[in-house]
């Protein structure tokens, strides 16, 4: 038996067991009236309807609806990312569909599909490589997008790490490097609270926050694969990184099956990144370079110098 669902110009039929048809159709009728947003396509409409059912209907009917959607679109067999990748979405559309899917994860009993790349193999060997600091403020946009899409998976972790960072930024030994704190969770939730670009790109701030983004990526990876942190770590033969990325590689290499190992390792890494960024800057403070223009008057340089460590005599 089917439930007929309409959202804007999109109409779909969702097959459910007989005992859920009446409740399902009642929910579909309410959905058509109460939801007015545009859906990307049939898959997006089906996920939005599933979300509506979990919010407004019985758990049994909602699970029956989602199980049907899961099967009809191959989400369980192929994995949501593979399905989204094959549907020709642009970035914004893909983000909407993924957000709708992962908003259902705390309620639905769907089985996450493990990637073949991360399945045990005697021939394929995986290497994890973590980058260094890009010297830009784009990390905040990346963190915001991950929270938007994978909120149920990472929002609690981000909030805890944000509290940790902001608390440590008030430590008397480093507080002068963090006059605007490190409350990244607040910045993600309210763009009006975001500090200026110069503060975000400063080394004491950008090093720990770029590191946090890498840790968020690790968490998204093991949670979307449906494995423990330790299972993910054991699948990699090598973990390495450039510059501050080495610390992320160390975190990965020390993970166990207990998620607390990820939280604990993340706090150690974030604390280290804060010290790496703050202490050199406090020892070698900011200054503004003055250039002389062709007319003899002083003018501020477009690009300000920053410290760089020089290590000699190791060879």
Describe the structure.
Helices cover 54% and strands 9% of the residues. It contains 13 helices and 6 strands. The N and C termini lie far apart (75 Å).
Summarize the structure in short.
By secondary structure, this protein is mainly α. It is built from 13 helices and six strands.
Low-confidence stretches: none
Let me know the average pLDDT: 89
As laid out across the biggest beta sheet, the strand order is 1-2
Q: Which structural class is indicated by helix and strand composition?
A: mainly alpha
* DSSP summary: helix tally: 13
Q: What's the shape?
A: elongated
Task: Write down how many β-strands occur, each being a DSSP E stretch of 2 or more residues.
Answer: 6
- Tell me the Rg in angstroms: 24 Å
Q: Element order, helices and strands?
A: EEHHHHHHEHHHHHEHHEE
CA-to-CA gap between the ends? 75 Å
Q: Major sheet: size, sense and barrel closure?
A: 2 strands, antiparallel
Percent of residues in helices comes to: 40-55%
In terms of DSSP E residues, the strand content is 5-15%
List keywords for this structure.
315 residues; elongated; two-stranded parallel ribbon; 54% helix; 13 helices; mainly alpha; two-stranded antiparallel sheet
């Amino acid at each position: 038996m089917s439930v007929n669902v309409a959202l804007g110009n999109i109409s779909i039929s969702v097959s459910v067991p007989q005992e859920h048809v009446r409740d399902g159709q009642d929910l579909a009728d309410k959905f058509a009236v109460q939801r007015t947003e545009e859906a990307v396509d049939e898959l997006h409409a089906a996920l939005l309807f599933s979300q509506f059912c979990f919010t407004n209907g019985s758990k049994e009917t909602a699970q029956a609806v989602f199980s049907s959607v899961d099967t009809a679109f191959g989400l369980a067999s192929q994995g949501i990312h593979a399905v989204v990748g094959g549907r020709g979405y642009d970035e914004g559309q893909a983000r909407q569909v993924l957000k709708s899917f992962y908003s259902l994860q705390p309620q639905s009993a769907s089985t996450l599909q493990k990637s073949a790349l991360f399945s045990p193999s005697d021939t394929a060997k995986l290497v994890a490589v973590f980058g260094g600091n890009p010297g830009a403020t784009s990390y905040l946009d990346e963190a915001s997008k991950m929270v938007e899409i994978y909120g149920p998976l990472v929002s609690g972790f981000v909030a805890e790490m944000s509290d940790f960072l902001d608390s440590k930024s008030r430590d008397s030994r480093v507080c002068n490097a963090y006059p605007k704190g490190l409350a990244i969770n607040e910045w993600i939730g309210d763009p009006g609270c975001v500090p200026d670009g110069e503060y975000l790109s400063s080394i004491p701030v950008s090093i720990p926050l770029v590191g946090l983004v890498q840790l968020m990526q690790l968490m998204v990876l093991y949670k979307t694969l449906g494995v423990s942190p330790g299972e993910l770590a054991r699948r990699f033969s090598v973990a390495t990184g450039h510059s501050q990325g080495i610390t992320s590689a160390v975190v990965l290499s020390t993970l166990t099956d207990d998620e607390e190992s990820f939280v604990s390792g993340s706090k150690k890494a974030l604390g280290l990144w804060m010290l790496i960024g703050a202490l050199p800057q406090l020892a070698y403070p900011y200054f503004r370079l003055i250039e002389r223009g062709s007319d003899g008057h002083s003018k501020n340089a477009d690009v300000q110098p920053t410290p760089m460590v020089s290590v000699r005599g190791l060879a």
